[in-house]
Amino acid sequence: MEKTKKQVLNARTVAVEILSQVFDEGAYTNIALNKYLRNSNLSVLDRRLLTELVYGTTKAKGTLDWYLKGCITRPLFDVESKILNVLRVALYQIIYMDRIPESAAVNEAVKTARSLGNEGTAKFVNGVLRGYLRKQAAGGFVLPDEQKDDAGYLAIKYMHPRWLVKRWLGPHGREGVEKLLAFNNSSAPVCIRANTLVTTREKLLADLAALEVKAHASQWSSDGIIIDEMNSLMDIFEKLPNAFYVQDESSMMVADVVEPQKGESILDLCSAPGGKTTHLAEKMGDAGEILACDIHEHKLKLIQENAKRLGISCIKTKLNDGAVFQREWANKFDRVLVDAPCSGMGVLRRRAEARWTKDKKDLKVFPPLQLSILKCAARYVKEGGRLVYSTCTIEQSENHYLIEEFLKLFPDWQRVPIKHPLTGEMVEELQIWPHIDNIDGFYICALERK
Which of 281, 289, 287, 333 is nearest to 307 (CA)? Predict the structure, then answer.
């Protein structure tokens, strides 16, 4: 990739700013990056460079910090945040981006540091990075011993927190964990869902081809499309504003399990930002009523905006805490969807920062909350109706074992077999494993009264 010095500097400086939002302000990587890209006039090459710097540095944060600790005598938390991010961005390029010369990565990092601080800051950055290069050339960095600390070795090699690697080694084994970690570090494709109220998947594929967008049909969802190559997603939005919704393949499968019918009353208890909600509306031909709930008011506006853009009128929104029982909803709905708040351990490929923002204690928070929501949801389903539970995690305490606990509390309920999207076989629950199925991890289960 040929780049001018000005373009490289700009991409790196912007990357530092976005990473500061992610690491210091709690921003989501994809949202912070997309917000900048929407309002920028960067070339296609610059967009790709910036995207790789932001996602790559975020994913590699723990490993980059491990190397930096070997080059800096003081604790990393004593280094000014933006300067630490300058070092991370530079080190990411040196270690993982072969096409960028080491000297260019160092020199531009020094310039960025100087613009953010002073000459002393620039000298500090130069010293740290030159020190890394010398130490690396001398073989000074040695990964943890595989035999003595396999989790530690894999954590540094595959850029994941050690506690999570150790947690996964038990159920998945060494080979499975290595594949899972590698999958999480791979690039996630852009997936879109055809809005079947206004088009078909075949027509949308043809329209995309006319825009010189390379794409192919999803195997997992009859409405899904995977984009292989494009200039800009915003360009597609401008040309085809209401023809699609950006949604992961795994997420698209939920509506097929809910099986909404025209004229039915549907409750989506945890619906924001509205991907599954709008898919349900399309599946039922926008005929019936969907009550879409969320605990955050600003997220309800996202649902409303998405429904309006897609031309959907059957969705109503309501501010609601899914864990609090609403007596007036008892036995009211034909189908209820609980796309539960979860640890998100199945979508670390897309949510780059999540591997560093969560810890073991966080995973214990979700099952009690999920069970509370599910217990309320069961009481909202009409006789003969369906309750669907889904998460975007691979943690079985939030999936299979959570449903087992629910069934013990509600013995008059049972799992309903659902069709596997690829094999066609009937299964009691659908657990998508990233390293096995090659898409984001997800869990879906359908329940009905006996």
Answer: 281
What number of other Cβ atoms are within 10 A of residue 384's Cβ? Answer: 8
70 CB neighbour count, 10 Å cutoff: 14
Distance (Å, rounded) from C-alpha 365 to C-alpha 369? 7
Residue owning tokens 């020190």:
131
pTM: 0.92
Strands 430-432 and 333-339: unpaired
Active-site residues, by number, are 392
pLDDT by residue, tens only, the chain of 450 residues: 333 444 444 788 999 999 999 999 999 998 899 888 888 877 778 888 999 999 999 999 999 999 999 999 999 999 999 999 999 999 999 999 999 999 999 999 999 999 988 899 999 999 999 999 999 999 889 999 988 999 999 999 999 999 999 999 999 999 999 999 999 999 999 999 999 999 999 999 999 999 999 999 999 999 999 999 998 888 899 999 999 999 999 999 999 999 999 999 999 999 999 999 999 999 999 999 999 999 999 999 999 999 999 999 999 999 999 999 999 999 999 999 999 999 999 999 999 899 999 989 989 999 999 999 999 999 999 999 999 999 999 999 999 999 999 999 999 999 999 999 999 999 999 999 999 999 999 999 999 998
